[in-house]
């Protein structure tokens, strides 16, 4: 199975030259550390930054430079800092090519729940609703099952929704999945050492398997 860095490394392979990319809180922030050589992408942080770099080394942190998850970050040459109104203007105008988000649940129709568990204190939805409503492409980085071993890829979400029919692709510790327009999780790749049978047993939603499923290469 993949660890969190493995998930981020696999998602980084989805980046294309010239993309403007928003990284959500959690696993998605790790993607900044694995941008492939020869690919130029501009990372956007919704609190007001274009040109976000990888995480700083210990001892080199600048407390004034943080991402939307309040983690210290670095900037790259040519980066730009601005207010959140301008940042969300970019998001709502569809200027972001790809959004990478974490999730608590995803349904087989591409619905996403990633902001609230009833009964638990949360700070609020943040920019997630704007992002899922406006992004051209959404990839979810998430754990396939919860701590009880229950699937988080479901027929329908049980938690409050962030957006509907918006997720295009999912990368978990077990594999890579396309969310089909007609519904269902199509298995594209399996994580190193993970069997198709394991993925079938870990997926509650409609799972589509066609032919031999290759093991992913990181």
Structural summary, described in words:
This protein is of the alpha/beta class and 218 residues long. 14% of the residues lie in helices and 23% in strands. It contains four helices and 13 strands. The protein has helices at residues 4-12, 84-92, 128-134, 196-201, and strands spanning 20-23, 42-45, 49-52, 75-81, 98-102, 105-107, 112-113, 138-141, 153-154, 169-171, 175-179, 185-190, 207-208. It has a ten-stranded mixed beta sheet with strand order 4-3-2-1-5-8-10-11-12-13, sandwiched between helices.
Q: How do the SSEs run, as a string of H and E?
A: HEEEEHEEEHEEEEEHE
Tally of helical runs: 4
Unreliable runs: none
Percentage of residues in strands: 15-25%
Task: Provide key terms for this protein.
218 residues, single chain, 23% strand, 13 strands, alpha/beta
Please summarize what this structure is:
By secondary structure, the protein is of the alpha/beta class. It contains four helices and 13 strands. Strands 4-3-2-1-5-8-10-11-12-13 form a ten-stranded mixed beta sheet, with helices on both faces.
């Amino acid at each position: 199975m993949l660890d969190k860095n493995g998930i981020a490394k696999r998602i980084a392979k989805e980046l294309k030259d010239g993309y403007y990319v928003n990284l959500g809180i959690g696993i998605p922030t790790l993607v900044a550390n694995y941008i492939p050589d020869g690919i130029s992408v501009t990372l956007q942080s919704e609190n007001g930054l274009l040109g976000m770099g990888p995480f700083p080394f210990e001892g080199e942190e600048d407390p004034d430079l943080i991402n939307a998850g309040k983690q210290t970050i670095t900037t790259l040459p040519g980066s730009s800092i601005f207010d959140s109104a301008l940042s969300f203007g970019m998001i709502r105008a569809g200027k972001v090519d790809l959004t990478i988000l974490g999730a608590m649940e995803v349904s087989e129709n591409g619905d996403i729940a990633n902001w609230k568990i009833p009964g638990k204190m949360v700070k609020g939805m943040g920019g997630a609703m704007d992002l899922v409503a406006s992004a051209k492409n959404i990839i979810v980085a998430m754990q396939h099952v919860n701590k009880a071993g229950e699937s988080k890829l479901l027929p329908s979400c049980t938690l409050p929704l962030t957006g509907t029919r918006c997720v295009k692709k999912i990368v978990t510790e077990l594999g890579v999945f396309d969310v089909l327009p007609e519904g269902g999780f199509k298995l594209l790749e399996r994580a190193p050492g993970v069997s198709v049978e394991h993925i079938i047993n870990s997926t509650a939603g409609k799972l589509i398997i066609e032919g031999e499923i290759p093991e992913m290469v990181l």
